[in-house]
Amino acid sequence: MIEREPDSGCWQADERSNTAKPLVLVAAAALIDVDGRVLLAQRPEGKSMAGLWEFPGGKLHDGESPEQALIRELHEELGIDTRASCLAAVACASHAYDSFHLLMPLYACRTWRGTPRGKEGQSLAWVRPVRLGDYPMPPADEPLVAILRDLL
Ligand SMILES: Nc1nc2c([nH]c(=O)n2[C@H]2C[C@H](O)[C@@H](COP(=O)(O)OP(=O)(O)OP(=O)(O)O)O2)c(=O)[nH]1
Hints:
It is an enzyme of class 3 (hydrolase). By secondary structure, the chain is an alpha+beta fold.
């Protein structure tokens, strides 16, 4: 068996990110339309990481499951309704930001009622998987984009 020398890349990154931070749980959705495009939303001015594109979703409230949180967030942010049975967990981001550690399951969703609108003023874009790289996203999302591209 060939062993990889732990002298660079992930090995060094781990040494930099091992300090205790509050864990923030966020549930996010890759809404996929009939043409296989994925919906991205642009984070509005005034929020952290403003201008970057993200998967719709948000933080879990106390007592909520990730699916319940996502159904609520999709209704609040986009004005659409979906159900837990229409959500399939496909990936999970685990990323150390400076002030918190983000744990974010990503759910694929192909079935919902209503037409997504940016109810909080956010711009929306339906993006072909091969074009996802054209949209700057938070660092936590990079591995998710790679997984989605392979999946779709
Ligand atoms: N919804 C969503 N959030 C993401 C993604 N990538 C990523 O790092 N995040 C981060 C940004 C936020 O810190 C957090 C989501 O918080 P939120 O949507 O409920 O609330 P917020 O924007 O007001 O967050 P914040 O300004 O308080 O940090 O997760 C993503 O693809 N989708």
